[in-house]
Amino acid sequence: MDRRRFVIGAVAALGAPHIVPSVLAQSARAYRIGILDYGSEAGRIGWWKAFNSRLRELGYVEGKNLQIESRFAGGSMEQLPTLAAQLVARKVDVIVTAGSAAAAAAKRATTDIPIVTTTGPDPVRLGLAASFARPAGT
Question: 1-21 pLDDT, tens per residue?
Answer without folding.
Answer: 455 555 555 655 555 444 434
